[in-house]
Amino acid sequence: MKNLMKSVRITLAFCALFSVSYILVLWIFAQFAAPGEGGNAETVTLNGKVVGAANVGQVFTKDVFFWGRPSCAGSGYDGTSAAGSNKGATNEEYLKVVEARIDTFLIHHPYLKREDVPAEMVTASASGLDPDITPECAYVQVRRVAEARGMSEADVKAIVDKMIEKPLWGIFGPAKINVLKLNVALEEANPTVGQ
Fold first, then answer.
1. Per-residue b/e over 35-72, b at no fewer than 16 CB within 10 Å?
2. What is the mean pLDDT of residues 124-134?
3. pLDDT tens digits, residue range 86-123?
4. CA-CA distance, 142 to 157, in Å (whole number)?
5. What angle do helix axes 142-149 and 153-163 make, rounded to 10 degrees?
6. Strands 49-53 and 132-133
7. pLDDT at 194
8. Distance between CA 42 and CA 78 in Å, rounded?
9. Which 3 state secondary structure label does DSSP give 30?
10. In this predicted structure, what is the pLDDT of residue 195?
11. 171: three-class secondary structure by DSSP
12. Taking the CA of residue 137 as centre, how many other CA atoms within 13 Å lie in the half-sphere pointing to its CB?
């Protein structure tokens, strides 16, 4: 009985120690390694007002804005239903959705051919909440955004170039652009009040 009580006390002590220390280690790591302030979600502001979280995609449908990847999470980037569609590339229902997205993309980008539409712009990410696009996806939208805003393509492209986030340490992950941050930078350069 003496050994049993000793074992129970040691087990409880280690459970408390490791559960608290594990959470403490993760919290300390988040303070330094996570984006944002102290491991909290990074918010994006425009004119002093918070317009969204940088790590969750936003719905942009107007021609004056860059568009992000489509979301399969409900009617937009709804975090409560975040998940992929789990439909394969041969699923007829899925293919119809992708075809409809391509048609919509081409209506707004008549200067592109069907084969020039980036797959990323018509297929959702696994989470359905992806806030980023590749620089190539931004470049195919430059002409549309420039025309809608009355800006030169060179000016819009310069904003895109400035917003490219390089891979971590130059090797981990692809180059990417946060769509919300890009649109905020665009608004700061050329406001679209009333559009």
1. eeeeeeeeebeeeeeeebbbbbbbeeeeebbbbbbbbb
2. 80
3. 677 788 888 898 899 999 999 999 999 999 999 888 88
4. 6
5. 120
6. unpaired
7. 47
8. 17
9. helix
10. 47
11. coil
12. 25
Counting Cα atoms < 13 Å in the Cβ hemisphere of 8 gives: 5
Cβ atoms within 10 Å, residue 141: 24
- Amino acid symbol at 30: A
State residue 130 phi and psi, 5-degree precision: -55, 120
Q: Residue with structure tokens 């769509």?
A: 179
Task: Please give the full DSSP string across 4-41, using - where no structure is assigned.
Answer: HHHHHHHHHHHHHHHHHHHHHHHHHHHHHHSSSSTTSP
Residue 79: what residue type? Answer: G
How far is residue 89 CA from its own chain's centroid?
A: 22
| Rg (the chain; Cα; Å) | 22
Tokens linked to 157: 């492209």
